[in-house]
Amino acid sequence: MLLQFTDKGIYCPAGDFYIDPWRPVERAIITHAHSDHARYGSKHYLCHHDSVALLQLRLGQDISVQGVAFGETIRYKGVTISLHPAGHIIGSAQVRVQQGSDIWVFSGDYKVENDGISGQFEPVPCQTFITECTFGLPIYNWQPQAMIFSGIRQWIQDNQAAGKNSVLLGYSLGKAQRLLYNLKGVTDQIWAHGAIYIPHQLLREKGWDLPEIHRITPDTPASAYKNNLIIGPPSAADTSWMRRFNPYALGVCSGWMQVRGNMRRRNADAGFVLSDHADWAGLLQAVKATGAEKVYTTHGFSSVFARYLTENGIPAQEVKTEYGDTDEELNLSETATSES
Length: 340
Hints:
The chain is 25% helix and 24% strand.
């Protein structure tokens, strides 16, 4: 096997490197900067150019990291490696590994709809495809993004008419940038929790077309964010940081909002089905577009998706990994995350 599933991560013996390892290794290729895929302690990191600053933010400025462009090829001990767009978050990539005529692709996390800022997923032809299955059940079926953001804008306008602040919760890396990019100008100002403000400002400094936002601190007067949009991470729910916004309406942005009852369990006023992962149809579309003869399914509903593929003529097998067990929040300093 060109790639093997080990207790440290996905390993290429021929090239002596790991992809998204969950234990420290000598050489790690990283698909994206979420904490379940990019972990501290490896000696050398390789990622897409746009992930370099995000990895340094998460793992420290002193890490040894090399950035490459999409489609650029590098070689480790006779194995050819290239990165290709995954469309998950800014800088997210799939990893193509080739030795001779044998080609494997590890997708990392991905979605097939272009959100305007994370790039367009690119199917990469291969013999073997390793796919995530976060939402690998037929119940998960996303509406077009334009419809979702139209609903969010209307919700914000309704809150303004009712004299309420609008608070949206979404992951600080990926979801927050997607929300901010697609909600430009929805209110006079946009305010944010420090865990969102820090990576947002970093990306703006790197040239990304993201709107200006304002950081909420303990000294921010209530009059500053009245009738405006406020964005926070999921970890801010039911905290003193939230209570300062009364009266407010709470909206949660997540693919899990597809399931009836999740909005109520989150104590949310609105649930917006907005995910940075592929839905059921998107997963099938991606798998078929690769032309893969063998598929390995990881994290999420991997056993269900593997069984479905096998029953429909594509041999598939579930593999256990340590991906997906995270809320994807940045591990920032105490001063960055403590906003109460």
